[in-house]
Amino acid sequence: MNGYTLLAAFLIGIRLAYAQSSDPKYFDEVPPGLTPRIFAPGKISTENEFEFGAVFSTNRNEFFYSVEINGKTETRMMKFENGKWSQPAKILFHDIYSCNDPFLTPDNKKLFFISDRPLNGTGPKKDYDIWYIERQTGKWSEPINAGTNINSDKNEYYISFTKTGKMYFSSNRQDNTGKYNYDIYSSEMKDGEFQPSNKLGAGVNTSFYEADVFIAPDESYIVFSANHPEGLGNGDLHVSFRNEDGTWTPSKSLGDTINTETDDFCPYVSPDGKYLFYASRRDIYWVSADVIRKLR
């Protein structure tokens, strides 16, 4: 076998390995192991923009993420059709207000997000509330506020849902210190209405910052961003596991393989349970979800 044949065989082997391990619905990216990688560089994570808040629909045929441009945010959507992804389309944006932190309900019929838009949709910015839009025939509805059982006169951030529709989110509604102290709350869904919110216990919440919460669909664990004195940066990803009695284990940092000296935030686990996505250093990263499971 001559050199050209060896080279051809090598290249074919590489191509076959790539084809076997890449996934079109993950933008043809080769999945990561326990070391994080930038997700879809040049396609989603770009050099010139600040991307964060990545989520998929349940069947992974839709992808949503947010982009910050000149201090204001917008949310974009891409569709997987005919074996390829569409170009990003802006679905939540405004000349004045920010719209980010998208998350679909379990039935994929509503897209929740946060915005500093006023309740009537006009006038100066207000604190961040949780809003949603509903799918209509070929389009989305106008934004709808999630209501007073969820929102307060302070900020509400980042949303995720269990498979039963229970919402988890964060808020600084109890912070009277001005020290950016956020806590994590949950709200049950009953008869199509969110119930009054409950603050999670000491395994998750402390006197410091806890926000940007992802709840496992079966509610078995929670991943969130925390700014604790012993942390590495402005926000470190932590995990807490649910006990049989409904309490939460003391949270554990995901460690310095994931967390950096900057802000690590917007955690999200893919619908197939395989990968943890998060934002860091102005890009979206992904890593094997085994980084969560090994801490149980």
Number of E strands? 24
Output the structural class.
mainly beta
* Termini gap: 51 Å
Low-confidence stretches: 6-20
Give the overall form: globular
Description:
8% of the residues lie in helices and 40% in strands. It is mainly β. It has a single domain (37-293), classed as TolB, C-terminal domain (Neuraminidase), CATH 2.120.10.30. A hairpin with a 2-residue loop joins strand 4 and strand 5. The longest helix has 19 residues, at 3-21. The termini are far apart. Residues 6-20 have low confidence and may be disordered.
How would you concisely characterize the structure shown here?
With 296 residues, the protein is mostly beta strands. It has helices at residues 3-21, 290-293; strands at 37-38, 50-56, 62-69, 72-81, 84-85, 89-92, 99-104, 110-115, 129-136, 139-140, 144-145, 156-161, 167-171, 183-187, 189-190, 193-194, 198-199, 209-215, 221-227, 236-241, 252-253, 264-269, 275-280, 283-288.
